[in-house]
Amino acid sequence: QLQLQESGPGLVKPSETLSLTCSVSGGSISSSGYYWGWIRQTPGKGLEWMGIIYYSGRTYHNPSLKSRISMSVDTSKNQFSLKVDSVTAADTAVYYCARHTEYEVWSDPWGQGALVTVSS
Amino acid sequence: QSVLTQPPSASGTPGQRVTISCSGSSSNIERNYVHWYQQFPGTAPKLLIYNSDQRPSGVPDRFSGSKSGTSASLAISGLQSEDEADYYCAAWDDTLNGHMVFGGGTKLTVL
Questions:
Q1: Chain A hits for B45, Cβ within 8 Å
Q2: DSSP for chain A?
């Protein structure tokens, strides 16, 4: 069955770049019909959709984050990645990766999540 | 504030029927499917309802979804203690090149 796993530093300094990778197993990231995306959840708060990327590189972003985030896909490693520039304490969150269907855009499955703390 | 509006909390007693509302606009709920996610503390959200009223395999038929105009609802019948969780609605929004929007979440308490 398809599984996703986030990885990356758990601590990032303010003004630096947050980088996370999501490894996909049990299926190919190059499968047609699916986007691969990121959703975050600040402590005690709700979910914030960040963006999605197709294996071809086509992306959709949250307009409120677009200027600071970038996403990429590595089909050879069956992974996709997220970078968030110029982080502040407000970017402290649990970051989830998830597969999204291409047209209806529901998210399933999700990774277990990775806590990233922004602090000096 | 979230683009989709949900009540912050809901409650019911075992066996009751509870509904959670999700209000949006013509650019999201009215034009696109609504999806619902269930989240227990310390765990990742799980898809509960997709395409407004479809249940993934393994989700009990006590859970149902509906959509009308710019609003959607999640109904839970025969409430059980293990249903106590946070519930989020989500929909694609066609503005600004398109993006997904979430509701703020509803914490369901089983009394």
A1: 39, 47, 96, 107, 110
A2: --EEEEES-SEE-TTS-EEEEEEEESS-TT-TTEEEEEEEE-TTS-EEEEEEE-TTS-EEE-TTTTTTEEEEEETTTTEEEEEE-S--GGG-EEEEEEEEESSS--EEEE---EEEEE--
DSSP class of B56: P
Location of structure tokens 């503005």? B95
Mean pLDDT of B89-93: 98
CB pair distance less than 8 Å for A106 and B92 = no
Q: According to the model, what pLDDT value does residue A43 have?
A: 84
pLDDT of residue A45: 84
Contact across the interface for A107 and B98, Cβ inside 8 Å: no
A18-52 pLDDT tens trace = 999 999 999 999 999 999 999 999 988 889 999 99
Q: Up-side HSE of residue B81: CA atoms within 13 Å toward CB?
A: 1
Q: Does residue B22 sit at the A interface (CB-CB below 8 Å)?
A: no
